[in-house]
Design brief:
Elements lengths: L1 H7 L10 H32 L16 H34 L6 E8 L2 E5 L5 E3 L1 E5 L4 E7 L4 E5 L4 E5 L5 E5 L5 E7 L12 E6 L1 H10 L6 H17 L3 H11 L25 E3 L5 E3 L2 H9 L22 H13 L13 H4 L12
Parallel strand pairs: 1-5, 4-10
Antiparallel strand pairs: 1-2, 2-3, 5-8, 6-7, 6-9, 9-10, 11-12
Amino acid sequence: MNELLRRILFLPDQRSSLAREIDGLHYLVVSITMGGAVLITLIGGYFLIRYRRRLQDTARPHAGTLARPALALETVALVGLGTLFLAFWNVGTRQFIDLRTPPEDTLDVYVTGKQWMWKFAYPEGESMISVLYVPARRPIRLIMTSRDVIHSFFVPAFRIKQDVLPGRYTTAWFEATEPGAYPILCTEYCGTSHSEMRGQVIALDPADYERWLAGGAASTPAFAQEAAAQAERERAEAEPTMPSRGERAAARHNCLRCHTLDGTPHIGPTWAGLYRAVVPLEAGGERIADEAYITESIMDPLAVMHRGFQPVMPSYLGQITPPDVAAIIELIKSIRDVPRGPVVPWDGGATGGGAAAPGGTTP
């Protein structure tokens, strides 16, 4: 019966531990609503026929003739509606509490919404854009916020939908019942590319999830790699300009951990005002920060170290694709007129390890 009703109402598959319970309330509300509508239609039709006015009817019925039946009918209707309201309130309250109270053994994932992408960060240090990897049959708690406007995180197959607000943290949780790829949508209008703010939840068997943690996306099953590729294509299509693609690429490769876009001094040289600027080199001499210099800084950072910064950046040769390099360069070009701050001597305790980006420093 559950599957029949789900298909009749065109609902997506139930792929979370609470999806069937939520659909059960949906079925009940729809059934009672439709039943009530049919009942009112039948009663209205009966009254239209039974009490239609005839030309030969000249006398009106006495005012008190229908008083008792009408009063009894109204009483039954009011009691029935009140009971129905209390029943709905009880079931809805219980489901709300279940949705807001995650189990104790949850895996926490930090979610940031931004025009127009979802970013996911794990306690282990992993960071993903548009793709959320989770183990199946384990509760996942999402700790969510927004960097700009109101978004809404919605996974139809899990029956979870939660507004994501700037300046506030909200939570939601789910437990995927089986491995698979499930689309993420934004259901709060957030700008011109709102409809393209999509992603994928990729639920893996626990063993596959551990392999993903150890080896990345290349070690996941074929369906997961295909879903991740699809999410990447959708994300690329949502990018309106090359600089915005570059910002996402920089975030994905962790460049923005140490390089800023607004001229603020940080661990690495700021990208603001960098393009075509004269860069003093640690080994002596100077270079113009053109496309060749930026590309060399990414691929062989020790050869073109910016004076005043430490040699803590590894090579990205073979780790970053040419389209991402081109997009990062376009991002740096787009902020060439932003004023730069002074070069601040590097503090070895500030880096905390990690990857790096152009300029010979950790990103």
